[in-house]
Amino acid sequence: MSQTTAQTVKIGSNLVGDSQPCYIIAEIGINHNGDLDIAKRLISVAVAAGCNAVKFQKRTVEVVYSAEELARPRESPFGATNGDLKHALEFGQSEYEEIDAYCKAVNIAWFASCWDEQSVDFINRFDVPCYKIASASLTDDRLLRHTRAKAKPLILSTGMSTVAEIDHAVEVLGKKDLVLMHACSTYPATYDELNLRAIQTMRQRYGVPVGYSGHETGIASTVAAVALGGSCVERHITLDRAMWGTDQAASLEPNGMSRVVRDIRLVEQSMGDGVKRVFERELPIIKKLRRVGAATQG
Predict the structure, then answer these.
(1) 110-150 confidence digits (pLDDT tens)
(2) Which ranges constitute the DSSP H helices of the chain?
(3) Measured CA distances, 136 to 63, 98, 139, 224, 248 (Å)
(4) What residues does each domain of the chain span?
(5) CATH homologous superfamily of domain 9-296?
(6) How far apart are CA 21 and CA 140, in angstroms?
């Protein structure tokens, strides 16, 4: 694929791409543990931190998982099988109506990773600004095409994917209104697995905005991803990493999410335009500290 300048994608009222503020997503995912009150508290955490959006995960359980997988023994607070757990973590129409109303009330966008076509159709009942396609779904051509048909911007995560697989997914989706997310799909990821320089490689290869979906425990690498050109950042959030749940350990607590947003905005402010200059506030320092001025040297 040719190397081109990354385009800009409009997600709701935000532009995502080069020279635009980083679009910051707080992924609630399934960290609500099937509790609408926890979901609302996590939305409030994202608002307080200054995030642009929150994201959920939506699955049609019987479509995504086989009957064998659902019957597999798995102890959880919700029962003794994997099916008990998966069903308990899914919100339905009434819960998403409340989520939609609550997000509108607190003025934050929301959308979801949809793992099957029925879930895409379900989320399409709401006026979401975009759709997220999870790393696990990158090779699902039918889902890619079905999601693209909704004519909304797409955010595609690329964890556990080869360059050839990403090439194919981009070919299926097209580059219009597409944001790619570099990711490593280990939970939590170790720092030697993050490979943040892939953000620059992907920006050059695909010519679309590229962001970072992080599953590490800290914040420094997420901020570095923005300094390396990441135009969108996604981090899981939780009320407490000690809570029950498979994604909690790879999530940020409220203070951590606030620090990520703060530090990203400080990095953006610090990047400047690349033109070397003397700032006005430096002039008295020149007068105070320089023994010899450039004009007097000889």
Answers:
(1) 999 999 999 999 999 999 999 999 999 999 999 999 999 99
(2) 36-49, 61-64, 67-71, 82-88, 93-106, 117-123, 141-148, 163-173, 198-206, 220-227, 254-271, 283-289
(3) 15, 28, 8, 25, 19
(4) 9-296
(5) Aldolase class I (3.20.20.70)
(6) 31
